[in-house]
Design brief:
Blueprint: H1 7-59, H2 61-76
């Protein structure tokens, strides 16, 4: 193990370790960015679906009221 104490070997090990740690840090940053991007995409998707649901309810309101009243009358007649 005395070969680890030699200056050339020690500096190579230190450079390798520093490079490895830098790579791990870059990977962690990339993973965080992807997670944030995925969350944003899901938020946009949910927002679009909510807007579509509101538009659909507004357009089909009379038919939905008829359906709702028919269901309520059927339940009340039991």
């Amino acid at each position: 193990m005395t070969w680890l104490k030699e200056p050339k070997v020690a500096s190579r090990c230190a450079r390798w370790r520093n490079g490895l740690m830098r790579g791990v840090c870059l990977l962690q940053v990339k993973m965080r960015q992807r997670c944030g991007q995925g969350t944003t995409e899901y938020a946009i998707l949910v927002g679009v679906l909510v807007v579509l649901a509101i538009v659909a309810i507004t357009l089909f309101r009379p038919k939905l009221e008829e359906l709702w009243n028919a269901i309520a009358d059927g339940i009340n007649s039991l």
